[in-house]
Write a structure and sequence with these properties.
Radius of gyration: 16 Å
Order of helices and strands: EHEHEHEHH
CATH topology of the domain at 43-150: Rossmann fold
Active site: 91 (proton donor)
Number of strands: 4
Pathway: Cofactor biosynthesis; riboflavin biosynthesis; riboflavin from 2-hydroxy-3-oxobutyl phosphate and 5-amino-6-(D-ribitylamino)uracil: step 1/2
Organism: Bisbaumannia pacifica
Helix content: 40-55%
Binding site for (2S)-2-hydroxy-3-oxobutyl phosphate: 88-89, 130
Distance between the termini: 33 Å
CATH class of the domain at 43-150: Alpha Beta
CATH superfamily of the domain at 43-150: Lumazine/riboflavin synthase
Strand order of the largest sheet: 2-1-3-4
Number of helices: 5
CATH architecture of the domain at 43-150: 3-Layer(aba) Sandwich
Shape: globular
Family: Belongs to the DMRL synthase family.
Amino acid sequence: MQAISQVEGSFTDVDGRYVIVVGRFNHHVVDSLVDGAVDSLTRHGVDADNIDIVHVPGAWELPLAVKRALQVVRPDAVIALGAVIRGGTPHFEYVAGGCNAALGNLQLEFDTPVANGVLTVNSIEQAIERSGTKAGNKGAEAAMAAMEMVSLLKRFGGEA
């Protein structure tokens, strides 16, 4: 019987250029996501000079800035961070759904990891929990996903 081959990324081969694209709306939550992402990247050996941070107004604007970063900077990975908090109107569904779908499409279009650290939550309390308190820091988690994908793609050959 032949052994099953397994390939996965690691956190030891994560050198590369990373762009963090940040929606400023709900900055009181998003700032903690950025801190978590940068901390994760640098703790795993990514040189701070290889991390660019781009600010946009909000989550709706993230995909366009991510696309431009992919075209111009040509990073090994992009980390999208933002927070969309449900309100009393359908605006939440349009912004969150459009942003998430576009980010997924961009990673396929550019063959480059786009880690989605955009919080889509029902309340400010949930956002705070996910930005560094009892539910962890989703910015740090997005950075970890980006690094793992950079490492994984290197294992397939060539650059991430």
